[in-house]
Amino acid sequence: MLKVLLVDDEPFILQGLTVLVDWQKEGFEIAGTAVNGEEALDFLIKNEVDLIIADIKMPVMTGLELLAKIRKENISEAYFAILSGYADFNYAQEAIRYKCTDYVLKPVEKDELLSVLRRVASMHQTVEEKKKDNKRMEQAYLARNMIAVIQGKYDNLNLEYVRKHMQLSEGVRYIEIELDGLELSEELTDEEKRGYQRKLYQHCLDYMDKDSNHCVFDVSGNEKIYDIGVVYCEYMSESREMNEQEYLEKFLDYLKGIIQMPVIMLVGKKVADISKVAQSYSTACVLRSFQGFCQKKPIYYYETEVQVKDEGIILCKKSLDVLLSAIEQNSPGEIVTGVDLLYQEMQQMGVTQEAMNLNINYMLFQLIHLATAQDDGVNQGEILRIISESTFEEGIMRGSKAHLSRFACEYAEYLTQLRKKVSYGVLAKVEREVKERYAENLTLKELSEKYYVNSAYLGQLFRKKYEQSFKDYLNNYRMEQAALLLVRTDKKIYEIAEEVGYHDLDYFVNRFITAKGCTPAKFRKQARLAE
Hints:
Layout: E1 2-7, H1 11-20, E2 28-34, H2 37-46, E3 51-55, H3 63-72, E4 79-84, H4 89-97, E5 102-105, H5 110-150, H6 156-165, E6 172-179, H7 190-208, E7 215-217, E8 227-233, H8 234-239, H9 244-259, E9 263-267, H10 277-290, E10 299-301, H11 302-305, H12 317-328, H13 332-348, H14 353-374, H15 380-390, H16 401-420, H17 422-437, H18 444-450, H19 455-466, H20 470-488, H21 493-499, H22 505-516, H23 520-530
């Protein structure tokens, strides 16, 4: 509601103005009244209003004097309408000089007052939209500079802009907040996931409030990761009288409670200041890759999961090299033996859990290197995480010997497929399967098992070739078949939905609108009119 101050020395005119129009219906509320300019000035010093309607001739201080004073002293930028019984051009000229919005002759008619209110409402809306546009541009420019600093691809201009436009302190961390891709429903399309990502971003802004400019949308730029980046500074938790862990846990609980989707936090290592935040970002990326070997939890801290603080920790290099060689040669028997030898050596040496983590992390880094040497166009860190999750089963501890053996065997098979490029030939078979079985509940996992290809790798290659996920490709193909049936047959819409693989009519209609821009019924009507 826009707030209005009415100013007139005649009480019956003030009363008449309050009942002349339906103020609320027009989007206004009367914030106050005054009987002269001086009384109005006292009100304006203490209160903000959007519109002032004042009589031109009043004792103590006239309407024109009030207008001149608030403009000269920057007391109020409110729209100003003068009420006058004088049709004198000099009065109007003086009012215009001080940015008067309107000049209304008494007695005030209802239609004329409505015209003033609607003109003010329109002007206010235009100004507000311009402010929002400017704010969006400022936020976008800040985000661009922040991403440059976060990713370590910046110069002094980027860094200084960030420092100038953000509240910062010591104790900086990069925190990745993302939808947990491994927990999301397979039924969700990329577009729907992106929609949830935007909702997640908005809720992050709401929670961080005055620190909302510390949030950045989609820092990773990876089409399979639906992330929000947050540059955390120590002052944030201190200002809420919490420690860092309490602050982040409360933040995550808020997000999960409001978005009703699986959300995780990856907390990069703490660095001295914003100029070092790229180091923290890189550790969050490491956490993302190694997440599958960490105990499942809502928040992952780099220092806890990956970083080793103990001095003199021994790397079991010989055992690790034997295991890596067995994986590279895809020898299941030797892989199991290699894992046994690694754990035996670590146990004999009496190493700590931190040392075990170090040895496993060394192996994971080497595996990523082996895969990247074969194909650097695939997100190997994501592949590693998905294979690790897929080989984890109930009752098996993450990172345990059993888990590591299963993971190593499947990763060895993946490397073999990668070397032979077998998945590229399979893509044509998958495309044929879609054409023949699009109405069935097809999944990439089922097809990968049928053609003996790692599902994570096949999914990324599918996206690389078709520039969309398998799920979106399948949905789009279904929509094309539905469109053909709408034009060529008289089948009812629910029958067509069933025939192309949708058992929920509402979901089918929504998907069709997204794909074709109109409802199935309207599409059919337009197609037949065009014939």
